[in-house]
Amino acid sequence: MNTARLTRAFELAQEQYAEQGVSVDKALRTLRAVSLSLHCWQGDDVAGFERIGTLDGGIATTGNYPGRARTPEELRSDLALALRLIPGSHRVNLHALYADTRKPDTDRDSLGPEHFAGWIAWARERRLGLDFNPSYFSHPLAKDGLTLSHPDKAIRRFWIAHGIASRQIGAAFGRKLGTPSIVNLWIPDGFKDTPVDRFGPRERLRESLDEIYARPLPRALVRDAVESKLFGLGSESYVVGSHEFYMGYAMKKGLMLCLDFGHFHPTESIADKISSLLLFTNELLLHVSRGVRWDSDHVVTFSDELQAVAREVVVGNALDRVHLATDFFDASINRIAAWVIGARNVLKALLAALLTPTTPLQKAEQKRDFTARLALQEEYKNLPFGAVWDYYCLKSDVPVGDAWLAEVRRYEHDVLSQRG
Ligand code: RNT
Ligand code: ZN
User: Fold this and answer.
1) Using a 6 Å cutoff on CB, does residue 260 contact ligand 1?
2) Measured between alpha carbons, how far is 335 from 68 in angstroms, rounded to an integer?
3) What is the CATH architecture assignment of 35-356?
4) Which of 47, 81, 175, 363 is least surrounded, with the fewest CB atoms within 10 Å of its CB?
């Protein structure tokens, strides 16, 4: 790596941005304050540590790249490497499946913070915040593809208890780590084929949620979020927790709505939804993912949609109201690389947005000079944000450019390849 050349390129870029009225320093300060929530489940193909079944719930990982994490220690070690290769300080997002000190007789309805003691200790030591997700899949009581909307009251009771337990776990994370834990609820409930009764399951889901959220928890400890979906494998015709369902529910109950990039019709844009939702709700959670055909969870690339979302959040001054959490799983490539590629892309997109000259664009729009607006929007795509990104990585003590890949390869050789 040639530090002198990187610095020179950065300084030239800085000058060019200054000419356009953009402060690179300010952009970097803002970027440094952004904390992504890195999902733990990319590291082991959403398997978790319960060993009671295989992944279901209409989500799937394909591929059998060697080196999957099999224990909490392995997963934490892999996450630690990923975090060292991503500039900035970030959070880790856990699923209930990942309880690390659970006794065999503990089921999901009776999980408590004590079952995450290893994670809490690890996060404390590294000053990481932890977010949480109840797991409504890969469990005998989710085999029908229905959980909180199941017609059987006993099954619903079990899953309601799981939701309540999960919020308590989030509260403990918030208390022990000094930063509120976002507890995001997603359920797979739905039907493969056309239902006769679309109302019933949604009414039951609403009732179940009312019980889960009956007890308000301090905002300093927990932020509750609910995540909708359009369809899944085996729930192609009907998903109980649709976008309209949760948008209504979240607005009414003051919960956070979670928009997953892969959970909408392919021509729908998450970017366009943000300004509408933030008029009526305080905060949003984004599951940064990438839909491809039937799969809603491909590794995040530097796509137009990602850049459009980043611009929306930045231009709307909403970085403190929009929480960014990665959510993808690919078992066909090195899993640590997947984390690093996705997370670095999210940050890169934010940086590109922070560096885009906004004032000239706004002026053109106010004058209704749509020719200039389009011309400038396109020209600004060529501004040298890459030089600023490289410099940011350098100053953040993380590898510049593709140099991170060599570190992943080394770890693959030394650690991952030793796993059976
Ligand atoms: C599934 C949802 C959900 C999951 C994780 C494992 O379609 O996106 O967020 O990916 O909770
Ligand atoms: Zn998601």
Assistant:
1) yes
2) 7
3) Alpha-Beta Barrel (3.20)
4) 363
